[in-house]
Specification:
mainly alpha
Length: 158
């Protein structure tokens, strides 16, 4: 799934929103900005086959398709870009500057991604204790306790 982590490397949604915001801020229409970012997404994955895995190219192509649908006002598109569509629709409806709303959306996306990363990082020590204990405890017994016990047995039996 694009932007969902996993083993596929795709640009984060916040970066895509920032690119659209920068284009809109420069005076480009929102639909044109979405199409330009979609074109850039398509160009980066297939253009570098030695660096882009097929799964990455597919995920970037799906994101590009979603941006094209947003630009055309068509549905459905991925849940990752639903907020981008909502912000652009709200800005068009109310006449508010879309760039500021897009930047706020990008910041929210970054905060959410950071929260997910923080949660995973906080779980890491707990997940590492059991394997480390299972590896280190037998080693400590074999290297520390067994030689002492064998030496005691050897001295007692002689």
């Amino acid at each position: 799934m694009p932007g969902g982590g996993g083993d596929t490397l795709v640009p984060p949604v916040a970066l895509i929103v920032d690119l659209v915001a920068a284009a809109v801020d420069a005076g480009v229409a929102a639909q044109t900005a979405c199409r330009a970012v979609a074109r850039a997404l398509r160009d980066t994955a297939p253009g570098q086959p030695q660096r882009a895995a097929p799964a990455q190219a597919q995920a970037q192509s799906e994101l590009a398709d979603d941006l094209e649908r947003i630009a055309a006002g068509l549905l459905p598109f991925s849940p990752a870009l639903t907020d981008l569509h909502d912000v652009l629709a709200r800005a068009a409806k109310t006449g508010v500057a879309a760039a500021a709303l897009l930047r706020r959306l990008a910041e929210e996306e970054r905060r959410e991604a950071q929260a997910v990363t923080d949660e995973a990082t906080s779980r890491l020590p707990v997940l590492l204790v059991l394997p480390a204990g299972l590896c280190l405890l037998p080693a400590a017994l074999l290297l520390g306790v067994v030689p002492v016990v064998l030496d005691l047995l050897h001295s007692v039996l002689q």
